[in-house]
Protein backbone atom coordinates (compact mmCIF):
# COMPACT_ATOMS: atom_id res chain seq x y z
CA UNK A 1 0.00 0.00 0.00
CA UNK A 2 2.69 2.45 -1.06
CA UNK A 3 0.04 4.68 -2.57
CA UNK A 4 2.45 7.39 -3.69
CA UNK A 5 5.30 5.22 -4.88
CA UNK A 6 3.73 2.96 -7.45
CA UNK A 7 6.59 0.83 -8.72
CA UNK A 8 4.78 0.31 -12.00
CA UNK A 9 5.03 3.33 -14.24
CA UNK A 10 2.72 2.89 -17.23
CA UNK A 11 1.71 4.97 -20.24
CA UNK A 12 -1.91 5.68 -19.23
CA UNK A 13 -3.22 9.18 -18.59
CA UNK A 14 -6.01 10.41 -16.32
CA UNK A 15 -7.84 13.71 -16.81
CA UNK A 16 -10.11 14.77 -13.98
CA UNK A 17 -12.03 17.84 -15.19
CA UNK A 18 -13.80 20.14 -12.71
CA UNK A 19 -17.04 20.31 -14.71
CA UNK A 20 -18.48 23.09 -16.89
CA UNK A 21 -15.61 22.74 -19.36
CA UNK A 22 -15.81 24.95 -22.43
CA UNK A 23 -17.76 22.99 -25.06
CA UNK A 24 -18.44 25.72 -27.60
CA UNK A 25 -15.53 28.12 -28.03
CA UNK A 26 -11.91 26.96 -28.01
CA UNK A 27 -12.75 23.70 -26.19
CA UNK A 28 -9.17 23.60 -24.88
CA UNK A 29 -9.70 20.75 -22.42
CA UNK A 30 -11.78 18.52 -24.68
CA UNK A 31 -9.34 19.22 -27.54
CA UNK A 32 -6.41 18.20 -25.33
CA UNK A 33 -8.26 14.99 -24.39
CA UNK A 34 -8.65 14.14 -28.07
CA UNK A 35 -4.99 14.94 -28.79
CA UNK A 36 -3.80 12.70 -25.96
CA UNK A 37 -6.13 9.93 -27.21
CA UNK A 38 -4.37 9.96 -30.64
CA UNK A 39 -6.20 12.81 -32.34
CA UNK A 40 -8.30 12.03 -35.41
CA UNK A 41 -7.36 8.34 -35.23
CA UNK A 42 -8.66 8.09 -31.66
CA UNK A 43 -11.23 5.49 -30.68
CA UNK A 44 -13.29 7.23 -28.02
CA UNK A 45 -15.91 5.69 -25.76
CA UNK A 46 -18.32 8.06 -24.02
CA UNK A 47 -19.85 6.85 -20.72
CA UNK A 48 -22.91 9.00 -19.92
CA UNK A 49 -24.22 6.72 -17.14
CA UNK A 50 -23.79 9.28 -14.35
CA UNK A 51 -26.14 11.67 -16.16
CA UNK A 52 -29.92 11.80 -15.93
CA UNK A 53 -30.15 13.95 -19.08
CA UNK A 54 -31.15 12.17 -22.29
CA UNK A 55 -28.75 14.01 -24.60
CA UNK A 56 -25.44 13.74 -22.73
CA UNK A 57 -24.01 11.00 -24.94
CA UNK A 58 -25.09 12.80 -28.12
CA UNK A 59 -23.64 16.10 -26.90
CA UNK A 60 -20.14 14.76 -26.27
CA UNK A 61 -20.19 12.44 -29.28
CA UNK A 62 -20.89 15.43 -31.51
CA UNK A 63 -18.10 17.49 -29.92
CA UNK A 64 -15.55 14.74 -30.42
CA UNK A 65 -16.68 14.28 -34.03
CA UNK A 66 -16.42 18.04 -34.53
CA UNK A 67 -12.86 17.77 -33.24
CA UNK A 68 -12.12 15.28 -36.01
CA UNK A 69 -12.55 11.91 -34.33
CA UNK A 70 -14.20 9.35 -36.63
CA UNK A 71 -14.66 6.54 -34.14
CA UNK A 72 -16.85 7.67 -31.25
CA UNK A 73 -18.89 5.05 -29.40
CA UNK A 74 -21.20 5.14 -26.37
CA UNK A 75 -21.22 2.71 -23.43
CA UNK A 76 -24.31 3.30 -21.31
CA UNK A 77 -25.20 0.10 -19.44
CA UNK A 78 -28.75 -0.01 -18.15
CA UNK A 79 -27.77 -2.23 -15.22
CA UNK A 80 -25.08 -4.32 -13.61
CA UNK A 81 -25.88 -7.36 -15.73
CA UNK A 82 -25.06 -5.50 -18.94
CA UNK A 83 -21.94 -4.02 -17.30
CA UNK A 84 -20.77 -7.63 -16.84
CA UNK A 85 -21.68 -8.77 -20.38
CA UNK A 86 -18.61 -9.53 -22.58
CA UNK A 87 -20.57 -8.79 -25.78
CA UNK A 88 -21.57 -5.36 -24.50
CA UNK A 89 -18.00 -4.67 -23.38
CA UNK A 90 -16.67 -5.18 -26.90
CA UNK A 91 -17.55 -1.47 -27.26
CA UNK A 92 -14.22 -0.87 -25.53
CA UNK A 93 -12.13 -2.94 -27.97
CA UNK A 94 -9.27 -0.78 -29.17
CA UNK A 95 -10.40 2.27 -27.19
CA UNK A 96 -7.70 4.95 -26.89
CA UNK A 97 -9.83 7.41 -24.91
CA UNK A 98 -12.67 7.02 -22.41
CA UNK A 99 -14.78 10.03 -21.44
CA UNK A 100 -16.96 9.83 -18.31
CA UNK A 101 -19.69 12.45 -18.17
CA UNK A 102 -21.02 14.48 -15.28
CA UNK A 103 -24.19 13.70 -13.38
CA UNK A 104 -24.15 11.67 -10.18
CA UNK A 105 -21.07 9.62 -9.33
CA UNK A 106 -23.07 7.36 -6.99
CA UNK A 107 -25.49 6.50 -9.81
CA UNK A 108 -22.52 5.68 -12.06
CA UNK A 109 -20.83 3.47 -9.47
CA UNK A 110 -24.10 1.73 -8.52
CA UNK A 111 -24.20 0.44 -12.09
CA UNK A 112 -20.52 -0.21 -12.88
CA UNK A 113 -18.72 -0.48 -9.49
CA UNK A 114 -17.05 -3.87 -9.18
CA UNK A 115 -18.21 -5.03 -12.63
CA UNK A 116 -16.30 -6.29 -15.65
CA UNK A 117 -16.83 -2.85 -17.22
CA UNK A 118 -14.84 -1.28 -14.39
CA UNK A 119 -12.03 -3.78 -14.98
CA UNK A 120 -12.16 -3.10 -18.72
CA UNK A 121 -11.70 0.64 -18.10
CA UNK A 122 -8.67 -0.18 -15.93
CA UNK A 123 -7.19 -2.33 -18.69
CA UNK A 124 -7.65 0.38 -21.34
CA UNK A 125 -6.01 2.91 -19.02
CA UNK A 126 -3.05 0.71 -18.08
CA UNK A 127 -2.50 -0.11 -21.75
CA UNK A 128 -1.92 3.58 -22.49
CA UNK A 129 -5.45 4.93 -22.87
CA UNK A 130 -6.64 8.30 -21.65
CA UNK A 131 -9.50 8.29 -19.14
CA UNK A 132 -11.13 11.69 -18.68
CA UNK A 133 -14.00 12.40 -16.32
CA UNK A 134 -15.82 15.66 -15.84
CA UNK A 135 -17.66 16.65 -12.66
CA UNK A 136 -19.13 13.37 -11.34
CA UNK A 137 -16.81 11.59 -13.76
CA UNK A 138 -13.80 13.28 -12.14
CA UNK A 139 -14.88 12.15 -8.68
CA UNK A 140 -15.23 8.58 -9.93
CA UNK A 141 -11.53 8.48 -10.88
CA UNK A 142 -10.81 8.33 -7.13
CA UNK A 143 -10.85 5.10 -5.18
CA UNK A 144 -12.11 6.65 -1.94
CA UNK A 145 -14.77 8.78 -3.63
CA UNK A 146 -16.71 11.81 -2.46
CA UNK A 147 -20.39 10.89 -2.91
CA UNK A 148 -21.92 14.18 -1.80
CA UNK A 149 -21.56 16.80 0.92
CA UNK A 150 -22.11 20.32 2.18
CA UNK A 151 -20.45 23.54 1.01
CA UNK A 152 -18.16 25.67 3.15
CA UNK A 153 -14.52 26.60 3.49
CA UNK A 154 -13.72 24.94 6.83
CA UNK A 155 -13.86 21.23 7.69
CA UNK A 156 -16.72 20.09 9.89
CA UNK A 157 -18.09 16.79 11.09
CA UNK A 158 -20.51 14.83 8.87
CA UNK A 159 -19.78 17.30 6.06
CA UNK A 160 -19.04 14.69 3.41
CA UNK A 161 -20.33 11.23 2.46
CA UNK A 162 -17.92 8.77 0.87
CA UNK A 163 -18.23 5.78 -1.44
CA UNK A 164 -15.87 3.89 -3.70
CA UNK A 165 -15.06 5.02 -7.22
CA UNK A 166 -13.22 3.36 -10.08
CA UNK A 167 -9.92 3.62 -8.22
CA UNK A 168 -7.92 4.68 -11.28
CA UNK A 169 -6.05 7.15 -9.02
CA UNK A 170 -6.21 5.30 -5.71
CA UNK A 171 -3.95 7.78 -3.91
CA UNK A 172 -6.13 10.82 -4.70
CA UNK A 173 -9.52 12.00 -3.45
CA UNK A 174 -10.78 14.20 -6.28
CA UNK A 175 -13.39 16.93 -5.90
CA UNK A 176 -14.84 19.15 -8.66
CA UNK A 177 -16.67 22.47 -9.23
CA UNK A 178 -14.20 23.24 -6.47
CA UNK A 179 -13.95 27.02 -6.04
CA UNK A 180 -17.34 27.63 -7.64
CA UNK A 181 -19.21 25.48 -5.10
CA UNK A 182 -17.04 26.32 -2.06
CA UNK A 183 -15.80 22.78 -1.46
CA UNK A 184 -12.52 23.27 0.40
CA UNK A 185 -14.15 22.27 3.67
CA UNK A 186 -15.65 19.04 2.41
CA UNK A 187 -12.46 17.92 0.69
CA UNK A 188 -10.40 18.74 3.79
CA UNK A 189 -12.89 16.78 5.92
CA UNK A 190 -12.68 13.83 3.53
CA UNK A 191 -8.88 13.84 3.65
CA UNK A 192 -8.77 14.15 7.45
CA UNK A 193 -10.58 10.81 7.45
CA UNK A 194 -8.09 9.42 4.90
CA UNK A 195 -4.65 10.66 5.97
CA UNK A 196 -3.05 8.23 3.53
CA UNK A 197 -4.55 10.09 0.54
CA UNK A 198 -4.02 13.46 -1.13
CA UNK A 199 -6.92 15.78 -1.92
CA UNK A 200 -7.30 17.29 -5.40
CA UNK A 201 -9.92 20.01 -5.91
CA UNK A 202 -10.47 20.88 -9.57
CA UNK A 203 -12.18 24.13 -10.57
CA UNK A 204 -14.70 24.43 -13.38
CA UNK A 205 -13.25 24.53 -16.92
CA UNK A 206 -9.97 23.23 -15.47
CA UNK A 207 -8.31 19.83 -15.63
CA UNK A 208 -5.40 17.91 -14.23
CA UNK A 209 -3.47 15.74 -16.68
CA UNK A 210 -2.08 12.94 -14.51
CA UNK A 211 0.50 10.72 -16.18
CA UNK A 212 1.30 7.10 -15.35
CA UNK A 213 4.51 8.19 -13.60
CA UNK A 214 2.41 10.16 -11.10
CA UNK A 215 3.40 13.59 -12.39
CA UNK A 216 0.72 16.05 -13.49
CA UNK A 217 0.01 19.25 -15.36
CA UNK A 218 -2.79 21.77 -14.86
CA UNK A 219 -4.70 23.10 -17.88
CA UNK A 220 -7.72 25.37 -18.28
CA UNK A 221 -9.15 28.54 -16.83
CA UNK A 222 -9.07 27.96 -13.07
CA UNK A 223 -7.00 26.38 -10.33
CA UNK A 224 -6.31 22.93 -9.00
CA UNK A 225 -6.05 22.88 -5.21
CA UNK A 226 -3.99 20.10 -3.64
CA UNK A 227 -4.56 19.22 0.02
CA UNK A 228 -1.60 17.48 1.58
CA UNK A 229 -1.61 16.11 5.15
CA UNK A 230 2.02 14.95 5.09
CA UNK A 231 2.88 17.59 7.70
CA UNK A 232 -0.33 17.35 9.75
CA UNK A 233 0.46 18.16 13.38
CA UNK A 234 -2.87 17.88 15.14
CA UNK A 235 -6.51 17.07 14.50
CA UNK A 236 -9.53 16.26 16.66
CA UNK A 237 -11.45 14.74 13.75
CA UNK A 238 -12.11 11.59 15.81
CA UNK A 239 -13.67 13.39 18.79
CA UNK A 240 -15.63 16.22 17.15
CA UNK A 241 -19.34 15.76 17.80
CA UNK A 242 -22.45 16.56 15.78
CA UNK A 243 -21.81 18.88 12.87
CA UNK A 244 -19.19 20.96 14.68
CA UNK A 245 -16.06 22.41 13.06
CA UNK A 246 -12.99 20.13 13.11
CA UNK A 247 -9.55 21.29 14.29
CA UNK A 248 -6.71 20.57 11.87
CA UNK A 249 -3.23 22.08 12.31
CA UNK A 250 -0.59 21.77 9.63
CA UNK A 251 -2.74 21.12 6.55
CA UNK A 252 -0.70 22.10 3.50
CA UNK A 253 -2.50 23.38 0.41
CA UNK A 254 -1.06 24.08 -3.01
CA UNK A 255 -2.98 26.22 -5.52
CA UNK A 256 -1.85 25.57 -9.06
CA UNK A 257 -2.97 27.21 -12.25
CA UNK A 258 -2.56 26.32 -15.91
CA UNK A 259 0.96 25.34 -16.88
CA UNK A 260 2.11 24.19 -13.46
CA UNK A 261 3.60 20.72 -13.19
CA UNK A 262 3.23 18.79 -9.94
CA UNK A 263 4.91 15.59 -8.81
CA UNK A 264 2.54 13.46 -6.71
CA UNK A 265 5.41 11.13 -5.80
CA UNK A 266 7.01 13.71 -3.49
CA UNK A 267 4.19 16.29 -3.40
CA UNK A 268 6.38 19.01 -4.87
CA UNK A 269 6.16 21.36 -7.84
CA UNK A 270 8.28 20.19 -10.75
CA UNK A 271 8.79 23.55 -12.35
CA UNK A 272 7.59 26.97 -11.33
CA UNK A 273 6.32 28.70 -14.43
CA UNK A 274 6.05 32.19 -13.02
CA UNK A 275 6.23 32.91 -9.32
CA UNK A 276 8.55 34.07 -6.62
CA UNK A 277 9.91 31.94 -3.83
CA UNK A 278 8.82 33.61 -0.58
CA UNK B 1 -8.25 -3.68 -9.12
CA UNK B 2 -9.31 -7.31 -9.07
CA UNK B 3 -10.16 -7.01 -5.40
CA UNK B 4 -11.41 -10.58 -5.04
CA UNK B 5 -8.82 -12.33 -7.16
CA UNK B 6 -5.52 -11.36 -5.60
CA UNK B 7 -2.93 -13.16 -7.67
CA UNK B 8 -0.50 -13.06 -4.78
CA UNK B 9 -1.37 -15.66 -2.19
CA UNK B 10 0.78 -15.10 0.89
CA UNK B 11 1.09 -16.69 4.33
CA UNK B 12 -0.27 -13.77 6.39
CA UNK B 13 -3.44 -14.04 8.48
CA UNK B 14 -5.98 -11.40 9.49
CA UNK B 15 -8.26 -11.72 12.51
CA UNK B 16 -11.02 -9.12 12.76
CA UNK B 17 -12.69 -9.60 16.17
CA UNK B 18 -16.12 -8.13 16.90
CA UNK B 19 -15.12 -6.66 20.28
CA UNK B 20 -15.92 -7.83 23.82
CA UNK B 21 -13.92 -11.03 23.29
CA UNK B 22 -13.65 -13.28 26.30
CA UNK B 23 -10.56 -12.15 28.24
CA UNK B 24 -11.02 -14.05 31.51
CA UNK B 25 -12.44 -17.54 31.00
CA UNK B 26 -11.40 -19.76 28.11
CA UNK B 27 -10.11 -16.81 26.01
CA UNK B 28 -10.70 -18.88 22.88
CA UNK B 29 -10.15 -16.06 20.40
CA UNK B 30 -7.07 -14.53 22.05
CA UNK B 31 -5.64 -18.04 22.54
CA UNK B 32 -6.14 -18.80 18.83
CA UNK B 33 -4.40 -15.52 17.94
CA UNK B 34 -1.39 -16.56 20.04
CA UNK B 35 -1.35 -20.04 18.49
CA UNK B 36 -1.40 -18.62 14.96
CA UNK B 37 1.40 -16.20 15.90
CA UNK B 38 3.68 -19.17 16.85
CA UNK B 39 2.51 -19.84 20.42
CA UNK B 40 4.96 -19.33 23.26
CA UNK B 41 7.71 -18.32 20.84
CA UNK B 42 5.52 -15.54 19.37
CA UNK B 43 6.74 -11.95 19.22
CA UNK B 44 3.61 -9.92 19.78
CA UNK B 45 3.20 -6.17 19.37
CA UNK B 46 0.13 -4.58 21.01
CA UNK B 47 -1.13 -1.34 19.42
CA UNK B 48 -3.44 0.43 21.94
CA UNK B 49 -3.56 3.74 20.03
CA UNK B 50 -7.30 3.57 19.26
CA UNK B 51 -8.07 3.45 22.98
CA UNK B 52 -8.50 6.37 25.35
CA UNK B 53 -8.14 4.13 28.42
CA UNK B 54 -4.74 4.18 30.15
CA UNK B 55 -4.54 0.45 30.86
CA UNK B 56 -5.38 -1.09 27.46
CA UNK B 57 -1.79 -1.98 26.60
CA UNK B 58 -1.17 -3.46 30.06
CA UNK B 59 -4.40 -5.47 29.94
CA UNK B 60 -3.61 -7.24 26.65
CA UNK B 61 0.10 -7.59 27.43
CA UNK B 62 -0.79 -9.43 30.64
CA UNK B 63 -3.25 -11.72 28.83
CA UNK B 64 -0.68 -12.67 26.18
CA UNK B 65 1.94 -13.31 28.90
CA UNK B 66 -0.61 -15.42 30.79
CA UNK B 67 -1.05 -17.40 27.59
CA UNK B 68 2.67 -18.15 27.62
CA UNK B 69 4.14 -15.54 25.29
CA UNK B 70 7.48 -14.19 26.54
CA UNK B 71 8.01 -11.43 24.03
CA UNK B 72 5.17 -8.91 24.22
CA UNK B 73 5.88 -5.31 23.21
CA UNK B 74 3.74 -2.19 22.91
CA UNK B 75 3.70 0.30 20.01
CA UNK B 76 1.74 3.38 21.00
CA UNK B 77 2.93 6.37 18.95
CA UNK B 78 2.00 9.74 20.41
CA UNK B 79 1.87 11.36 16.98
CA UNK B 80 2.55 10.98 13.28
CA UNK B 81 6.21 11.95 13.65
CA UNK B 82 6.89 8.99 15.94
CA UNK B 83 4.86 6.73 13.63
CA UNK B 84 7.37 7.65 10.91
CA UNK B 85 10.49 7.21 13.10
CA UNK B 86 12.62 4.17 12.11
CA UNK B 87 14.03 3.83 15.65
CA UNK B 88 10.53 3.67 17.11
CA UNK B 89 9.47 1.16 14.45
CA UNK B 90 12.21 -1.28 15.49
CA UNK B 91 9.56 -2.42 18.01
CA UNK B 92 8.14 -4.41 15.08
CA UNK B 93 11.41 -6.23 14.25
CA UNK B 94 10.66 -9.94 14.12
CA UNK B 95 7.00 -9.52 15.08
CA UNK B 96 4.91 -12.63 14.41
CA UNK B 97 1.65 -11.17 15.75
CA UNK B 98 0.19 -7.67 15.89
CA UNK B 99 -2.83 -6.95 18.07
CA UNK B 100 -4.81 -3.73 17.51
CA UNK B 101 -7.05 -2.77 20.41
CA UNK B 102 -10.51 -1.29 20.45
CA UNK B 103 -11.32 2.38 21.00
CA UNK B 104 -11.82 4.76 18.08
CA UNK B 105 -10.66 3.70 14.62
CA UNK B 106 -10.53 7.33 13.44
CA UNK B 107 -8.17 8.25 16.30
CA UNK B 108 -5.96 5.30 15.36
CA UNK B 109 -5.85 6.22 11.67
CA UNK B 110 -5.29 9.92 12.40
CA UNK B 111 -2.01 8.89 14.03
CA UNK B 112 -0.83 6.02 11.81
CA UNK B 113 -2.71 6.36 8.49
CA UNK B 114 -0.24 6.76 5.63
CA UNK B 115 2.82 6.53 7.93
CA UNK B 116 5.82 4.22 7.93
CA UNK B 117 4.17 2.35 10.82
CA UNK B 118 1.24 1.46 8.56
CA UNK B 119 3.67 0.15 5.93
CA UNK B 120 5.56 -1.80 8.61
CA UNK B 121 2.33 -3.53 9.67
CA UNK B 122 1.72 -4.45 6.02
CA UNK B 123 5.21 -5.92 5.73
CA UNK B 124 4.83 -8.02 8.90
CA UNK B 125 1.48 -9.30 7.62
CA UNK B 126 2.71 -10.15 4.11
CA UNK B 127 5.73 -11.93 5.59
CA UNK B 128 3.41 -14.35 7.38
CA UNK B 129 2.46 -12.46 10.53
CA UNK B 130 -0.98 -12.47 12.12
CA UNK B 131 -2.73 -9.12 12.45
CA UNK B 132 -5.69 -9.18 14.83
CA UNK B 133 -7.89 -6.20 15.59
CA UNK B 134 -10.80 -6.05 18.00
CA UNK B 135 -13.70 -3.60 17.72
CA UNK B 136 -12.12 -0.39 16.33
CA UNK B 137 -9.08 -2.49 15.46
CA UNK B 138 -11.25 -4.78 13.34
CA UNK B 139 -12.68 -1.84 11.42
CA UNK B 140 -9.17 -0.56 10.72
CA UNK B 141 -8.30 -3.78 8.87
CA UNK B 142 -10.56 -2.49 6.06
CA UNK B 143 -9.35 -0.10 3.41
CA UNK B 144 -12.68 1.69 2.98
CA UNK B 145 -13.37 1.95 6.71
CA UNK B 146 -16.54 2.63 8.67
CA UNK B 147 -15.72 5.62 10.90
CA UNK B 148 -19.03 5.85 12.75
CA UNK B 149 -22.76 5.68 12.09
CA UNK B 150 -26.28 5.11 13.34
CA UNK B 151 -27.91 1.86 14.50
CA UNK B 152 -30.80 0.16 12.73
CA UNK B 153 -31.55 -2.86 10.60
CA UNK B 154 -32.39 -1.17 7.29
CA UNK B 155 -30.11 0.99 5.13
CA UNK B 156 -30.82 4.72 5.11
CA UNK B 157 -29.14 7.80 3.72
CA UNK B 158 -26.32 9.48 5.71
CA UNK B 159 -26.35 6.50 8.09
CA UNK B 160 -22.63 5.88 7.98
CA UNK B 161 -19.44 7.95 7.78
CA UNK B 162 -16.43 6.47 6.02
CA UNK B 163 -12.67 6.98 6.22
CA UNK B 164 -9.65 4.95 5.18
CA UNK B 165 -8.20 2.19 7.32
CA UNK B 166 -5.00 0.18 7.08
CA UNK B 167 -6.20 -1.59 3.94
CA UNK B 168 -4.95 -5.02 5.00
CA UNK B 169 -8.20 -6.48 3.59
CA UNK B 170 -8.93 -3.98 0.81
CA UNK B 171 -11.88 -5.96 -0.57
CA UNK B 172 -13.79 -6.03 2.74
CA UNK B 173 -15.67 -3.40 4.72
CA UNK B 174 -15.59 -4.74 8.28
CA UNK B 175 -18.04 -3.79 11.02
CA UNK B 176 -18.03 -4.99 14.65
CA UNK B 177 -20.30 -5.35 17.72
CA UNK B 178 -22.53 -6.27 14.83
CA UNK B 179 -25.68 -7.97 16.18
CA UNK B 180 -25.30 -6.40 19.60
CA UNK B 181 -25.39 -2.82 18.29
CA UNK B 182 -27.88 -3.42 15.45
CA UNK B 183 -25.50 -2.49 12.63
CA UNK B 184 -26.91 -4.35 9.62
CA UNK B 185 -28.34 -1.11 8.23
CA UNK B 186 -25.14 0.87 8.44
CA UNK B 187 -23.01 -1.88 6.90
CA UNK B 188 -25.53 -2.35 4.08
CA UNK B 189 -25.53 1.42 3.48
CA UNK B 190 -21.73 1.47 3.40
CA UNK B 191 -21.63 -1.38 0.88
CA UNK B 192 -24.31 0.18 -1.34
CA UNK B 193 -21.85 3.06 -1.72
CA UNK B 194 -19.02 0.58 -2.44
CA UNK B 195 -20.48 -2.08 -4.73
CA UNK B 196 -16.97 -3.36 -5.42
CA UNK B 197 -16.53 -4.46 -1.78
CA UNK B 198 -17.99 -7.15 0.46
CA UNK B 199 -19.40 -6.34 3.91
CA UNK B 200 -18.33 -8.36 6.94
CA UNK B 201 -20.20 -7.82 10.23
CA UNK B 202 -18.55 -9.52 13.19
CA UNK B 203 -20.46 -10.12 16.42
CA UNK B 204 -19.00 -9.66 19.88
CA UNK B 205 -16.74 -12.46 21.13
CA UNK B 206 -16.51 -13.71 17.54
CA UNK B 207 -13.72 -13.51 14.98
CA UNK B 208 -13.01 -14.23 11.35
CA UNK B 209 -9.68 -15.89 10.55
CA UNK B 210 -8.88 -14.67 7.04
CA UNK B 211 -5.98 -16.42 5.34
CA UNK B 212 -3.72 -15.03 2.64
CA UNK B 213 -5.50 -17.14 0.03
CA UNK B 214 -8.73 -15.24 0.77
CA UNK B 215 -10.47 -18.14 2.53
CA UNK B 216 -11.76 -17.71 6.05
CA UNK B 217 -13.03 -19.48 9.16
CA UNK B 218 -15.42 -18.24 11.84
CA UNK B 219 -14.59 -18.80 15.54
CA UNK B 220 -16.22 -17.69 18.78
CA UNK B 221 -19.64 -17.33 20.32
CA UNK B 222 -21.62 -15.37 17.71
CA UNK B 223 -22.06 -14.95 13.98
CA UNK B 224 -20.26 -13.33 11.12
CA UNK B 225 -22.65 -11.72 8.63
CA UNK B 226 -21.43 -11.30 5.06
CA UNK B 227 -23.17 -8.77 2.80
CA UNK B 228 -22.69 -9.51 -0.87
CA UNK B 229 -23.94 -7.23 -3.66
CA UNK B 230 -22.85 -9.49 -6.51
CA UNK B 231 -26.51 -10.10 -7.40
CA UNK B 232 -27.80 -6.59 -6.69
CA UNK B 233 -30.73 -5.85 -8.99
CA UNK B 234 -31.82 -2.37 -8.05
CA UNK B 235 -30.97 0.47 -5.68
CA UNK B 236 -31.89 4.13 -5.40
CA UNK B 237 -28.95 4.91 -3.12
CA UNK B 238 -27.92 7.79 -5.41
CA UNK B 239 -31.27 9.56 -5.36
CA UNK B 240 -32.49 9.02 -1.79
CA UNK B 241 -32.75 12.36 -0.01
CA UNK B 242 -32.20 13.41 3.60
CA UNK B 243 -32.07 10.53 6.04
CA UNK B 244 -34.69 8.45 4.22
CA UNK B 245 -34.59 4.66 3.86
CA UNK B 246 -32.73 3.37 0.78
CA UNK B 247 -34.19 0.78 -1.61
CA UNK B 248 -31.95 -2.19 -2.35
CA UNK B 249 -33.20 -5.30 -4.14
CA UNK B 250 -31.09 -8.44 -4.37
CA UNK B 251 -28.72 -7.95 -1.43
CA UNK B 252 -27.40 -11.37 -0.43
CA UNK B 253 -26.47 -12.01 3.18
CA UNK B 254 -24.73 -15.03 4.65
CA UNK B 255 -24.86 -15.68 8.39
CA UNK B 256 -22.02 -17.92 9.50
CA UNK B 257 -21.28 -19.29 12.93
CA UNK B 258 -18.23 -20.93 14.46
CA UNK B 259 -16.66 -23.63 12.31
CA UNK B 260 -17.95 -22.38 8.97
CA UNK B 261 -15.38 -21.86 6.21
CA UNK B 262 -16.02 -19.20 3.57
CA UNK B 263 -14.22 -18.50 0.32
CA UNK B 264 -14.07 -14.77 -0.43
CA UNK B 265 -12.74 -15.47 -3.92
CA UNK B 266 -16.10 -16.77 -5.13
CA UNK B 267 -18.29 -15.73 -2.16
CA UNK B 268 -19.29 -19.30 -1.41
CA UNK B 269 -19.21 -21.57 1.63
CA UNK B 270 -16.32 -24.02 1.48
CA UNK B 271 -17.84 -26.66 3.68
CA UNK B 272 -21.15 -26.79 5.44
CA UNK B 273 -20.55 -28.06 8.96
CA UNK B 274 -24.14 -28.73 9.91
CA UNK B 275 -27.07 -27.48 7.88
CA UNK B 276 -29.58 -28.51 5.29
CA UNK B 277 -29.68 -27.29 1.74
CA UNK B 278 -33.11 -25.72 1.28
Task: Give the percentage of residues in beta strands of chain A.
Answer: 25-35%
As an assembly, this protein is homodimer
Q: How many strand units of chain A? A: 17
Work out the helix count of chain A.
7
Average pLDDT score of chain A: 94
Structural class by helix and strand composition of chain A? alpha/beta
Order of helices and strands of chain A: EHEHEHEHHEHEEEHEEEEEEEEE
Query: Which percent bin holds the helix content of chain A?
Result: 10-25%
Largest sheet of chain A: 9 strands, mixed
Radius of gyration of chain A: 18 Å
Question: Care to give the gist of this entry?
Answer:
2 copies of one chain form a homodimer. The first copy, chain A, is an alpha/beta fold. Chain A has helices at residues 28-36, 56-66, 86-89, 105-112, 116-126, 136-139, 184-192; strands at residues 13-17, 43-47, 71-74, 97-100, 130-134, 144-149, 160-164, 172-175, 198-202, 206-211, 215-220, 223-228, 234-235, 248-249, 252-257, 261-263, 268-271.
